[in-house]
Structure formats: structure tokens, C-alpha cells
Amino acid sequence: MSGVTLRRLTREVEELAARGTEPAVLAALLAWTVRPRRTLEGLRRALVAHRGTDGRPPAQALLAAVRDHVDDSDAAAASRLLPRWRARGCRLSVVGDPGYPARLAEAWPMTDGPVLLAAAGAGPPPGPTVAIVGARNASSYGTGIAAWLAEVASAAGVHVVSGGAVGIDAAAHRAALEGPGGTSVVLGCGHDVGYPRGHAGAGGLFERILVAGGGLLSEQLPAVPPKAGIVRARNRIVAGLADVVVVVEGGPRSGALLTAGAAAERGRPVLAVPGDIRVPGSAAPNRLLAEGVGACTDPADLLEALPSDRVAAAATVPQAPAGASLPVTLLPSEVHRQLARAWPRAVPGDVLIDRSGLPAGTVLAALTRAQMAGEVVERADGFVLRRDPEPAAG
Amino acid sequence: MGRGLAVVRGIALVGLRPLEVRVEATCSPGLPVLKLVGLPDAAVREAGERVRTAIQRHGLRWPGERVVVNLAPADLPKVGSSFDLPLAIAVLAATGQVPMAAASRTWACGELGLDGSVRAVTGQLPLVAGARQLGARELLVPAGAAAEAALVTGLTPVPVTDLTEVVAALEGRRRVAPLEPVRPCPGPAAPDLADVRGQPLARRAVELAAAGGHHLLLTGPPGCGKTMLAERLHGLLPDLTTDEAIEVAAIHSLAGERRPDDPLRIRPPLRAPHQVVSAAALVGGGAGVPRPGELSLAHRGVLVLDELLEIPRAVLDALRQPLERGEVVLSRARARISYPGAVLLVGATNPCPCGHLGDPRRACTCRPDRIERYRARLSGPLLDRLDLQVPLQPVARAALVDGSPGEATAVVAARVAAARTAAAERWEPGRLNRDADAALLRRTTTRPALARLAAALTGLGASARAFDRMLRVARTIADLEGREVVGPGHVDEAVAYRLPPVPVSA
Ligand SMILES: [Zn+2]
What we know:
The complex is a heterodimer of chains A (394) and B (506).
Chain A: H1 3-14, H2 23-33, H3 40-49, H4 58-66, H5 72-79, H6 82-87, E1 90-94, H7 102-105, E2 116-121, E3 129-133, H8 140-155, E4 159-162, H9 168-177, E5 183-186, H10 197-200, H11 205-211, E6 215-218, H12 228-241, E7 244-247, H13 255-265, E8 270-272, H14 283-290, E9 294-295, H15 299-305, H16 308-314, H17 333-342, H18 349-356, H19 360-372, E10 376-379, E11 382-385
Parallel strand pairs in A: 3-4, 3-7, 4-5, 5-6, 7-8, 8-9
Antiparallel strand pairs in A: 1-2, 2-6, 10-11
Helix pairs in contact in A: 1-2, 1-5, 2-4, 2-5, 8-9, 12-13, 17-18
Chain B: E1 6-14, E2 17-28, E3 34-37, H1 42-57, E4 66-72, H2 84-94, H3 100-104, E5 111-112, E6 118-119, H4 124-133, E7 138-142, H5 146-149, E8 156-160, H6 163-170, E9 184-185, H7 200-212, E10 216-219, H8 226-236, H9 242-254, E11 264-265, E12 270-271, H10 279-283, E13 284-285, E14 291-292, H11 294-297, E15 302-305, H12 313-325, E16 327-331, E17 336-340, E18 344-349, H13 368-376, H14 381-385, E19 388-391, H15 397-402, H16 409-426, H17 438-443, H18 447-460, H19 464-481, H20 488-496
Helix pairs in contact in B: 1-2, 4-9, 7-8, 7-16, 16-19, 18-19, 18-20, 19-20
Bound molecules: zinc ion.
Zinc ion binds at residues 352-354, 356-357, 364-366 of chain B.
């Protein structure tokens, strides 16, 4: 083994490493996986087949397995990938590290969490998380229900993950991104591919998710295209990140069934939204229902299926991204105080005006300014701050 | 026996527009038959028989010759029984029973009974007002409608009870004492705005609506006081001037909703048709002579449409153009009839099919797609015209009891009147900010305010029409503050009167 180039890769990879991830481990794993016929998933299976991790942290077990099999040409090839991740603002983490979603790492390597995970934006928060999945070719019933469930979940502080595809996935992401729960996408390709094009372009869904404080995740090298097998592998990550999986719509061979299966393997609850039996898109959820999964006919079904300890945690999980500034408000202080006290519930305009003691016109004009600046959102039940006014310390 | 052509003037109405009708009569040798020409409708044709019987039974003479009566111009549709009186006078003049010269100076309208009595007709008031517009100085009117006719200034009504008095009036033997016009009636006291507890948003919107004439949309669960607010809004409108009151009364008279001895109402009308109805009932129409609809009956006042979303789409669509123009145009085979219809529309609706969306006390049980479909019915051109959209919360019992009383109607009405005066001085007498010219409006707005509005609309995805409508609301906000120019703060408030968008699925 030639240490020079691998050492340089280690230095180069340092700035891409997520918090708590060893650059040396990251460099070695990257160098391993760039060579044909070697995969990180294969590495995991090898560990399972031999001695597991022998009680070592996953990163150390992995490093021990690859250390002696990577050389300078591997390191040079891996080094060429880094600018593409850097351009996308990605951070890389190794399974089991603090920057890697804990839920996805549970029982690794016996469970199939990816060895490496590249995240643009914030990683999924540790709080309660739901996966809302379904068909690309969705009906207005399906997208409407997905959006309804996602909006209610996000408003309740529950994070929403899905696959970022058009149809059900997009409806769920869109409805969740504004709420305090937020949303993350697990891509079915590398970060540098830009797929689906409508979501990856400037001003598209993915950019909106990043702006709103959500994240884009992928286990793939940056340029890997969305082939069928990779999209299927993506679904197991969606399942691994979630406390509950809800299948909204999907055909008889829908990828959503794979997500549901992966969740069941991990012992996580699966729910399905009953569909119109005349429509092909109802095949997947109705089959799951026939097989005995719970029916989701209301957002409350979804919230009840979350493990109770996680829901209780929702209140204390910091929702604002790290480094959120001190409350700077465009609202009169009394109005802001009321909204902060009620958060994440909305306050009707009438109540805000009445309790502030200010003229209606003054309060309304200030609310418009705050809405245009993104501080406040108006909903059917009143006005609500977009972010937790007092993120928990730490 | 006279052999000349007798001419008496009557009035036809096309909508509220008066047209002069010359009733010409001549006698010629032949069988004693009456021939009516000039496209008279069935009611006018019957007039021939009525007039003949009335003249004979009243001791006057029907000629033993052929009588030809022409109603000119021939291409004008003439309807109703108001031509009985001019017709009878023309026949009496043609047969030398009244002076021909006096008849040719005479304007008359009224129906004859078979006994020769003169009776008021439906739409008597617009006929009198129309006669004045056409230049009549004196008008023979049924005595029963005389007090009402006296409301119209610049014209002397000559009341007649029967044909004997008609003859006397034409021979100059009848002196008319000046008539006492029916007293204007202020109407019952309107419910006071002070009764509205809480709901500051709605109170503010009601004040803006009254000051600028902006249409208002109230959404809220059942029992949140939508009707109550509409009544208070009506109470904030200033009294009508006498001319305006006569115009309003004329429409009601035409629709058969006003009797000649009803006092003149100086309060603007308040119409709340019960869960509408047909397009014809709402904007006017119907077989034969199109009747004014609820929209015209609410002219210069308030039209309340409750359960707006339960009204068929076709009926709502019929409302759009009239709301924009302030008048209803009804096309008929022979004429284009228009009625005034400048109303302040108050629409009320539930926020969703079950009524409880946004209600903190009861959960909404509607599926999201049903809410979307429900709201979609409101969207588009009609919603764009409802400038003030206010979500109402159910009034908590505590607020009803403890809430401090708000300002009284008298206080707010004074501000409303001042703002209306400011608008009328800026635009033209009687013009509300709702109807302000867009170009002039922008000239009274600061550049930062225009920029702010443009930015807000981009966020809302609203139309250019919405831009000017919101600017008009901002103008009213500034007027209530007594400001000459519209600033960004006024615009900010105006933008707030839009319902939050319904979450739309992918
Ligand atoms: Zn509802």
C-alpha cells in the first residue's frame, strides 16, 4: 500500500466529513468502493458472514476490512469524485458515526443501512419521523391525501421522509417543508445527477427543501444514474429512517411495497391508505391492508402509530437549523409574543388584534410584512410562526 | 265633431329609460270600430275596449265612426296599461269633447277602470320621473299616485280621479292645490355596531367596505355572526339624497315591490334573497318585460348572498359583469334594457363543506380534496371582485358577555362619511373608491407602495385586476386616515384582506 496518495485523499476528504466522522476511514472506504466489483454493501455482507463487527464501532471494523486492499490508483480515482460532492454542499458520514442518522444505523450490520451517506443540507433530525411513499403516477386523491398527512405531521413536529420522486413523494415533501417537522429526500441516484429534473433544477422542489432547512441524502457516488436497482435500494433507506411508513398509492409492483417490506423487516409499523378498488394505483395499499397492516384514514392514525417516546420527544427537539439567529421580528412585540406562546399552533387574526390592543389595520399591515418576509404563514385557522421561536439549547 | 288629428303624450319605459310616446287619434267615416296601430302588446290592445267602455259608462260620447289610434314611434315596444289615459284623452279631443289645443299640450299616464275612474299602475314613479326627464311641465296622474308624483321636482302633477276631472282639467276648470309629497321615511333604526363584541377584523373590514364600497366576503362556521355583520354594514351607509331615493324607489315601483302611497325611503336598500334563486331573479329578466332582479332592487345599497357556494355557478357567473359595471344589461329581441345595479355585495360562506375548517372548537371532517373543490368554486373572476375577504371565528360565549363593546355605529359612520366625501372630491361627486379609475388611482399612490403591492401579488399569484382592486382598498384605508397619498403601510393592510390559499396538492 502506498501511503502518500491515500494520505492526501484523507486531507482532501477532511472538509467533506460530517461531524464525528474519521477522515481516514472515509478516505479508505471511498478508495475501496471506486474499484469495479467492490461495493460497500458487499463489505457489509462480508462482515455479517464473518464475525460481525466484533464489538468494535462499525467504522473501525470497516477500516480493518479495507485497509490492506486499497492503493494509490484507487485513492486517485476517489479524489476525482470529491469536487462533485463539494459543489453540491454535501457532507459524508460513515454508519454508526454521530453525523449518521442513528435510526438507520440501528443493529448494523445485521440491518442494511448504507455504509456511507452523503447529505446536502441538514441531515434528518433525531425526532419522530414518518415516511410517506407511493406512486409516481398518482391520482389527485393520492396526492391530496399525501399532502394532508404530511402537512399535519410536519405541523405536529414530525419529520417527513420520502424518495423525492414526482407524484406522492413530491406531494408529501411539498406539504411538509414549511412546517416545523420539515422534510428530507432520499435520492435514487448520486447527488450530481439532477434527477428528477423538474425537482432538481433552480427553484425546484429540492432547492426549496434545502432553503426550508431540510436535507437531500444519497448513498451513491455523485455521478451514479437512477437505475432500477438503485432506486429500489433507496427505498430501504427511506424505511430505515422512519418510525412509521405510510403507503398512499401504488401499483401491484410499486416500489412502495419494497419500502413497506424493509420497514417490516426492521419491525417498524406500516400503514396503508385505502384506495378506490377500481383504480390500478390502489393495488399496493389495498394488498398491504389485506395482509394485515393498519389502515391510515386520518392523520391521527399516523401520529398514533409513532412510538410514544418519540412523540413525547417532539416537543423538545430543536426544530430550527443550527445557528438560527436571535428572534428578529417584523411584528409588534405583543403580537410576536402571542404567536411565540401559541407555537406551533396558529392564532386567529381576531385574537391577535384583540389581545395586542392595537388597531386592526396596524396589526394586519405588520402581518403582511412578516408573511412576505417568511416569518409568518397564514393558514385556515390563523397565523403561525414558521419556525420555533425558542429552539431548545444544544 | 272634430275632424283633426288629436295628439296626447304618454311615456314608455325601457328599463328605467323613459321614451316619449305620441298617442294619435283620428275619426273617419265608416263602421264604428276602434283600430289600434303601432305594435301594442296585449295589455295595450285591451286598452281599446277599456277606454271605450269607460268613456261610454261615464256619460261621455264614443264616436259613431271608425276611430284609428296610433302609438308612435311604431318600433317601440309599448307595454302595460299606462296608455289608457292618453288614449282616452286623444279620443275625446278627436271627437271635440275636450279642446284639441289643450290635449296637444298634455302628458298623461294612468289606467282606466271600466267606470271611468283613473288608477295608478305598476311603475308609476319611474313614469313620472321619466316625464320630467322628457321635458313635461305638467302631467295628469292618477290621484292615488299624486303624493308620490309630488316627490319629483320640476314637474307639476295634476291628480285626477275620473274622466270628469280629466275633462275639467283640460278645459282649465280645475285648479290644483300644491301637493304635499309623501314624507321621506328614515326607516327602522338599524342594529348598532356596538353590539358586535370581539371580531375586530370583521369590524374593520365592514368599515372599509362602507367607506369605499368594496365587496365583502365573510367566511366562517355557522353561527359566527355573518348576517349580523351585514346588517351593521348597511347601518354605516349614509342616507340617500332625494334624487337617489327616487331612483331606488322607481326600481322598486317597476318591480311591483312598492305601492304609490308608500313613503319614500331614504335609507339605502338591504336585500338578502333567501338562498338564491335563478339568474333571472338575481340580475333581472323573465318572460315578457324583464323585471329588475335582486341586484337592481339593492341598487345604492347592500346585497347579501348567504351560502354563496351553494348558489349554482351559472347564477354566480351572471353576477360578474353587473358587479363590474354597476348596471345590468338584459338583451331582448326588440331592445337592450338596462337597470342600475351599483351594489355593495356581501357574500357569506362556510369555509369548507362541513363548516368547521379553522374552528378551534370543532374539528373539520372534510377530506382535503373536497375542501379544494369547494374553494375552487369561489376562485377566479368572482373571488377577484370580492376585495375584502375576512375569515370569521366563532364568537366565544365569554367574548359575547365580557368583550368590551366596540365603537358605536354613529362614530364609525362619521368616519365613513368623511372618507366618502374625500373620495367624491378626488374623483367626482358620488364616485366611490371601488369605482375609481385605475390610472388616476395609481397617481395618488407612492412608488414604494406600488412596488410593495407588486411584490405581494407575485407571492399570491394574483391577477392584474386584483392589483387595482387591492389598490382601491388601500386608497380607502388612506382616506379613513385622512391621507392624500397611499403609502406602503396602507398597501400592506389591503393585501391582508385575502383568504389564505388552500394547500394545493402536487
Ligand atoms: Zn370541513
